[in-house]
Amino acid sequence: MAKTYLDQIVDYPSLVIQKISSDKHCVGLLLNKAFDSVDENDCDEALERHIFDYQYVDETTQTSTAYVWVEMEVNDVSNTQIKNNRLYVTVSCHKEYMELDHKIFKGLSGSRRDNLTRYIDKLLNNAGGFGIGNLSLLSVRTLSPVNGFVGRELTYEMPDFNIVPITE
C-alpha cells in the first residue's frame, strides 16, 4: 500500500504504545506490581488491558484501575512538505487506585497517576524517531474524563514531512 500524508496517525501512537508497554516502571504502576518483578507477561497484560490508541472507559467498569491513551492529530498542514502533528498521551486513574502501596513502591511519593505521567515523559520527551527532530513536550493538563477517574494529558509537538504525492 502506498504511503499517505496520514500514516503517522496510526504509526506514531503504535510506537509510543510499544515503548510504554515495555517499560517496567509504567507496567508496574499500571498493574500495581514491583518494578523488579515485571516480566514479559505483565507487559502483554498492560498492552492488552490498559494502554489504548483511543480514549474510552465503559461506564459500567467496576474495577479501580489506570489507563494510558495515546492519540494523535495533525494540527497544521501549511504546505506540501511539512505538517505539524501533536501527540496526546493521557494517563487516567480511578480515584480509588490513585494511592500507591508503599510496600510495593518503596521510595516513590505522589500518586499513581502522577508517577505514570513522570515515567512516560521520561520515555518520550526528546525521544527521536518521530518526525523531524525529537518529541517536544508542549503542555500537561489535568482532566476528569469519566466519572470516578482523573487524568493528566501530556501534549507533544512533532513537525513531520508530508509523504511524496499519493499515487494509485
Features:
5 strands, elongated, 168 residues, STM4215-like, 4 helices
Give the helices and strands, then pairings.
Elements: H1 8-21, H2 24-31, H3 40-49, E1 51-52, E2 66-76, E3 82-94, H4 112-124, E4 136-143, E5 149-161
Parallel strand pairs: 1-2
Antiparallel strand pairs: 2-3, 3-5, 4-5
Helix pairs in contact: 2-4
Low-confidence stretches: none
Label the structural class: alpha+beta
Q: Care to count the β-strands?
A: 5
Task: Note the gap between the termini.
Answer: 9 Å
> How can the largest sheet be summarized?
5 strands, mixed
CATH class: Alpha Beta
Oligomer: single chain
Q: What is the total domain count? A: 1
Strand ordering within the main sheet: 1-2-3-5-4
Order of helices and strands: HHHEEEHEE
The CATH architecture is 2-Layer Sandwich
Task: Give the structure's gist in a few sentences.
Helix content is 27%, strand content 28%.
Describe this structure in words.
The protein has 168 residues and is of the alpha+beta class. The chain has a single domain, classed as STM4215-like, CATH 3.30.2000. The protein is built from four helices and five strands, in the order H-H-H-E-E-E-H-E-E. It has helices spanning 8-21, 24-31, 40-49, 112-124; strands at residues 51-52, 66-76, 82-94, 136-143, 149-161. It has a five-stranded mixed β-sheet. Helix 2 (24-31) runs antiparallel to helix 4 (112-124). It is elongated and about 55 Å long. The protein starts with 7 loop residues before the first helix and ends in a 7-residue tail after the last strand. The model has no long low-confidence stretch (mean pLDDT 88).
